[in-house]
Amino acid sequence: MATTEVERRRGQLAALSIAAVVIIVGVPLWWRTTETYRAWLPVSQIKEFATLQLLLSVDVEVVFSRGTVSPEQQKKVPMTQTQDEEHRVDENTALKYRYEIRYRTATIMEEDALKQPTASDADLSLHALSENPCGSLVVYVIPESSSLLSEDVDVYIGQKRTAILRLGAQMRVGRTLEQLLAHLEPRIKKILHMMSFSHTDITAALSDRVRLAPGNRENIVDSMRAFKSSPGYEITFSLLNPDPKSHRLHWDIESAVETYVQPLLTKLAPIANFSIDSQTLYYAMLGVNPRFDISRSSYTLNAESLAHVINPVEARLGSNAASSNPVLNFLLYVPDALHSPLHILDRKKQAVHSNAFHSPRWGGIMVYNVNDVYGPEAVLPVDININMAKVMGVFLAQLRLLLGVQSSSPPPGFVVASCSSTGLADWELDRLMWSRSVENVATATTTITSLAQLLDQIGNIVINDNIAEQVSSAVTSLQLAVAELEAGNLGFALQYSKEAILASERAFFDPSLLHLLYFPDDQKFAIYIPLFLPMCVPILLSLIKIASDARQKRREKQAKKD
Amino acid sequence: MTLFTLLFLLSSCLLVYCINIEDNVGQFFSSGHTNNWAVLVCTSRFWFNYRHVANTLSVYRSVKRLGIPDSHIVLMLADDMACNHRNPKPATVFSHKNMELNVYGDDVEVDYRGYEVTVENFLRVLTGRLPPSTPRSKRLLSDDRSNILIYLTGHGGNGFLKFQDSEEISNVELADAFEQMWQKRRYNELLFIIDTCQGASMYERFYSPNLMALASSQVGEDSLSHQPDVGIGVHLMDRYTFYLLEFLEDIHPASKTCMNDLFKVCPKSQCVSTPGHRTDLFLRDPGSVLVTDFFGSVRKVEITMDSINLTSVVSHRKEEPAANGELQKEVYSYSDQLPVSEIIHQ
């Protein structure tokens, strides 16, 4: 009897100790060894970015020249006005534009500059006087009687960040300063829309975040044509020579790139890095047969067949295997001797002056006719030097379009200065920088929020330290970018937004974030049950037996007491 | 009176002609995409699964013929049938008995071959989470204006597709991968075609917008193969893809056939199984979607209206004659075909 008692006691102790070990040691050990490593992410800050409130602030300086304000008004003029414009794009995104307008009178040197005979000369001398930081704007107001601008022109937009505005006729006699400012306000707004940004530009830049219903055709075309913001682009210039037997082509592409293209790309350096290649392809034909047009006595390609030209050529173009940057291809096609000259016709069957066409987000093709360089008695093959200035003029125009420099025609009464030697005016660069900053901020916020959502949803994904680091740095850069946009420092805002987008993309596309560890819960049970159930069942049963025995004993004790 | 009716007819004809031209112009920009990509995957290996490789290669051939270049096609073949030891006609993969059509051709670029075709690599290609050393040809570099065609074929079941006889991809994983693509705007519109048994189960779980899906059979049905060839000894193609190939052979880059015709390919009488499709997640009406929007690559084109007047003179680099008075000859060299050092040190 004693031995069974001891045996039973031993059995109970054994069961209890096994249960204790399993629960106290085993379960925490199993938990720690099977949990996935998830580094800490700034989730609360990421959640803040789900609702984006952007404030874009522009510094505008309005300079009154002599004759626009009366002497007693001149004393009141040095003043500052702040105008705010609010737009709500959708329930998560709100935009606010702040225009800080500073009014002042012109200095003597500026007055001298404005006395020049033509507007472009005035513009040049005004540039020599001061350098405006990027993102800001200066508007010079000249009296209605001034002869600087011609009759029908109200505004002249210069090559850097200046504009010359002429007062309207109704502002000639006896008006107050308030009337003058009220008269100027809509005109200045129009200038701002053209030289800085307009609401449509900014909402187009937010397209990653906000899927808007397509507006008119112009907006769709513009948004489809320009490349999306990317840290780098590859530009490839290709010379297509389908007839080497007749034409021996020489193009001095290296010098042409250095003289014409490189200045533009250096100016665009804050926006992206560019790498340039060039190649020559022999026996590369166009995919379509041009038709001979007797009225023009030349071969013609009409607009409908242009779409099929690109595909057969693209297979031979090649690209740099080491980078994943978007590629812009610029092709120069010299038609073979049998099909020269070759002209491109637009939809109205008119010959296109530039003889070139471009495809959105791909590049451009120019047809260069050489039939007038040699006569029919020339000895083949003929050496031909290609006029790189003409070619690069067209390619640069196409490059501007493909990079998003808007080419919309200016409103009536506006005259825009012709492009400077670099091919890009400072205010066009500013426009690009505004839309790129906003686009980068929008893309980075969506990337970060969707990454946080993904990591939250799938509890099994391992979050390594480097991902957490990238996410934190993306969040900090985003906060800085938004702050700089509010302060009006466009250059810094663009830089921070680029850093934000690089960090967020690196975090999102990290190869370790594959959600292949998708184990639905029933599969988890299917794995654990055969392992743990055979071990746990005896323990559980013995615990139950111990408990019921203890209850039995207590009942007996109760009965004995009674 | 007759003159009046004649004039009326003439003017109405002209009006219709004008509307047609405007329609063409409008249609150019109605699809909203600027480039096309294709991801074609054959998931089964071994010689008796010849038909799956033939399926994939026939879609590859159509897609190339209609204009998508190799740089925009990611072709994944789990096994090599053309150079298989058991192939009595090496370097060929036929789609029809009597060996009428060699879909292997002489210009095939396979990006993922053999054991590289795994669920992990497939999902990595779709979501873009590839290691930095992956070359360009193995990446899906699509953007928010790309239309992507995804074609999967192999052995499948209710809710899964078998890869390489050893692993599976489930419909939930596929739907999540597409959602990841949508979050990063890696596609504008996506057409998903699957030719396996119970193929319709694979598109049941999609929830991202702008997806259109086609499958060769419904849940509970098997997709059957078309016809065996006694010379080669295996079944050459699956029924659905065979009739799909027949349909695509009639399409050329400028054709205006729309997706509703694609849905009618291979009715039950020919296919024995019932092909299915899913368009509820697609924003546009399938009747207005061209087949070439996904299978071909019709570029949008704009005429360049202006050009910049460049006046600065090109500065030519002066070359000094060599010390011994002879002209310096410029030495050319081939550029690195595969910039290995750049790729490795990324």
From TrEMBL, chain A:
Name of the protein in question: Phosphatidylinositol glycan anchor biosynthesis, class S
Bilayer disposition of the protein: Multi-pass membrane protein
GO biological process: attachment of GPI anchor to protein; GPI anchor biosynthetic process
A GO term from the CC aspect: GPI-anchor transamidase complex
Keyword Transmembrane helix among record annotations: yes
Compartment annotation: Endoplasmic reticulum membrane
Annotated source species: Cynoglossus semilaevis (Tongue sole)
PANTHER family from the UniProt entry: GPI TRANSAMIDASE COMPONENT PIG-S (PTHR21072)
Keyword list, A-Z: Endoplasmic reticulum, Glycoprotein, GPI-anchor biosynthesis, Membrane, Transmembrane, Transmembrane helix
Lineage of source species: Eukaryota, Metazoa, Chordata, Craniata, Vertebrata
Keyword Lyase found: no
Pfam families: PIG-S
Pathways involved: Glycolipid biosynthesis; glycosylphosphatidylinositol-anchor biosynthesis
